[in-house]
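Reviewers of the previous submission asked for a worked example of the structure-prediction workflow described in the proposal, so we include one complete record here. The input consisted solely of the amino acid sequence. No template or homolog information was supplied to the procedure at any stage.
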Amino acid sequence: MKIHWKIKPFEALSPNELYDILRLRSEIFVVEQNCVYLDLDGKDKLALHLFGELEGKIVAYSRLFKPGITFENASIGRVVVDANYRHKKWGHELMRVAIAEIQLHFGESKITIGAQLYLKKFYESHGFVQTSEMYLEDDIPHIEMKRE
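From that input alone, the workflow returned the following structure tokens.
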């Protein structure tokens, strides 16, 4: 099984793709993490949407931002892999592709993220270093991390 990666601006997403992306984000960030928050934060229209499909199903996703939208640097957010496929380690492939796409589309190598604290080692394995103290975002511990 090989995941097929696609990247699209908001306007190019089909209604089905948008629905499947929002459903996946809701499944993980709201239901699985038991966190009531407003996922639709107004930034989706400004993002590039990177998603991995397997047999027509979106199983991995992140959104990419040019500098100045979320952070001073380019950024990656809403990093998610369907719980049924995490054993495949596609989160690592997702991050490698996201970093490459930021360099390709925005010409940027400096990336800042707001990472859930429990994923610190995962992001460190992709060259990110912690640059802030822990803070709560929607009652979940986060840290800011940067990749030069």
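The CA atoms of residues 118 and 141 lie 8 Å apart. We consider this example representative of the routine output the project will generate in years two and three.
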